[in-house]
Amino acid sequence: MGVAGGGGNDFQWCFSQVKGAIDEDVAEADIISTVEFNYSGDLLATGDKGGRVVIFQREQENKSRPHSRGEYNVYSTFQSHEPEFDYLKSLEIEEKINKIRWLPQQNAAHFLLSTNDKTIKLWKISERDKRAEGYNLKDEDGRLRDPFRITALRVPILKPMDLMVEASPRRIFANAHTYHINSISVNSDHETYLSADDLRINLWHLEITDRSFNIVDIKPANMEELTEVITAAEFHPHHCNVFVYSSSKGTIRLCDMRSSALCDRHSKFFEEPEDPSSRSFFSEIISSISDVKFSHSGRYMMTRDYLSVKVWDLNMENRPVETYQVHEYLRSKLCSLYENDCIFDKFECCWNGSDSAIMTGSYNNFFRMFDRNTRRDITLEASRESSKPRAILKPRKVCTGGKRKKDEISVDSLDFNKKILHTAWHPMENIIAVAATNNLYIFQDKIN
Amino acid sequence: MSAESPEPASAEEQKVVYSVIFNLLLIVFQEMEDKVISPEKAEEAKLKARYPHLGQKPGGSDFLRKRLQKGQKYFDSGDYNMAKAKMKNKQLPTAAPDKTEVTGDHIPTPQDLPQRKPSLVASKLAG
């Protein structure tokens, strides 16, 4: 596995599918706010600003259509969250789905956690392909039968029916967050999960909705002294006692729940030293970490700040082991990016299944992939123009100054409204899902 | 020394000349470095020129407080009821004000309040 390179043995990315409407006028509710594959990669969930979840399922490989190579089609869709108004605090609670996290599959049903700013919900998605017929007490259309007319007993028979996929909320975890939830993370014990807001992190048990434990609280006694907020949090993939959280100041704290009930004191503190002479008004803003993800191996973690992606070795706190520039050319545009608020955009990042490559989004519907072994990187675009089935994606290049070559795009021509904030990589194969505003693109590696 | 042709400089003299040239170069490079500003600092200067009062309060707290207060919408029932009473005497306003402005200068009326209903329309991704 790796990243598309020039030629030779490298593979190339091809367009596979695109979901969503084509029209120019995008309704706010249709903007995709989260994308997540499940553990097997067979299911792909998206959440949007309208509080809706759409789950796609990968089709079984079909001998008669070898090129379809497992397309993703709609499996289930439901309204997860609705807009609310907290009258006591005069607070409007958006229905936007901030994060979806799948639970590992334990039986025929699928479970996922979805959260908005205030409430986390556990959803069960189950299939029904049989229906019981021949009830004693009611007719086939549900009407109760007259008990005096029943003269014999029969055993209802299960008959096949068209597949129906039902989603039902099994748990609602509410009222535990004063501030806005930015992360949820399922623990490797498959029993607990954490939810993080700007100032606090809570630990929940999946079965218990009326109680949660506060494990991190960085709220200062005097709010005037507030200097940083929590931006993301995640459990370690293998050690159920370890989690990390990132801050708006570009630092990451690793905490061990065995050391104390309240993990206000970190076990490890990751921060890259900054050159004080290069400090500017923008330094803190662009150092704010928007996403943190452990590698599948559990040995590394990756952080995304405004301009770069950094890979950290958990054994080394004083600096990252790898730094990848996502769009360094934006450094000379920070003033206008501050004015149009783009500097506060929260980009996510993800690993591929073998941890050999990482991916993150950028502007102009560009997304970037970095191969950690070959150190090669590539910029690709999610656009309708390159949406022909199995069309190979052409690498894109941003011209930073001077003469612009033929296929390059200049920094000033970039569309900052077309931002790719959410991407996901299949846990085992080279299939990626890229959310471009209201459209979901699926790309696969080239089939030979 | 003869006046007609200069003799080749001695090793000592050469050393002196080289060290003078070296020092001159050092001074030139230092000046060049001072003139080259990082792109980030240039952007900062631009921002300070446009918004001179920015950053005089602790900047971090401003952003953070704004972030923590996201979603705050205040409503004055007295203003609302008075505006409703006034409405009874007047025609409905012909120009509908911006539907998102329900607080602040604009007194909301029942017609203006955005409907906080969930999207009953299914997601277009499922279409």
UniProtKB/TrEMBL annotation, chain A:
Statement: the UniProt record of this protein carries the keyword Cell division: no
Leader sequence segment: none
Cellular component GO terms, alphabetical: protein phosphatase type 2A complex
Record flagged with keyword Repeat: yes
PROSITE patterns: PR55_1, PR55_2
Keywords noted in UniProt: Repeat, WD repeat
Gene Ontology terms, MF aspect: protein phosphatase regulator activity
UniProt record similarity statement: Belongs to the phosphatase 2A regulatory subunit B family.
Name this protein carries in UniProt: Serine/threonine-protein phosphatase 2A 55 kDa regulatory subunit B
Species per Swiss-Prot/TrEMBL record: Nothoprocta perdicaria (Chilean tinamou)
From TrEMBL, chain B:
One Pfam short name: Endosulfine
InterPro entries registered for this protein in UniProt: Endosulphine
GO biological process terms held by the UniProt record: cell division
Keyword Phosphoprotein found: yes
Keyword Ribonucleoprotein in annotation: no
Recorded superkingdom: Eukaryota
Cellular localisation: Cytoplasm
GO cellular component assignments: cytoplasm
Region described as Disordered: spans on this chain: 88-127
GO molecular function ontology, one term from the record: protein phosphatase inhibitor activity
Main location: cytoplasm
Keywords from the UniProt entry: Cell cycle, Cell division, Cytoplasm, Mitosis, Phosphoprotein, Protein phosphatase inhibitor
Function: Protein phosphatase inhibitor that specifically inhibits protein phosphatase 2A (PP2A) during mitosis.
Stated family: Belongs to the endosulfine family.
Protein name: cAMP regulated phosphoprotein 19
Gene that encodes it: ARPP19
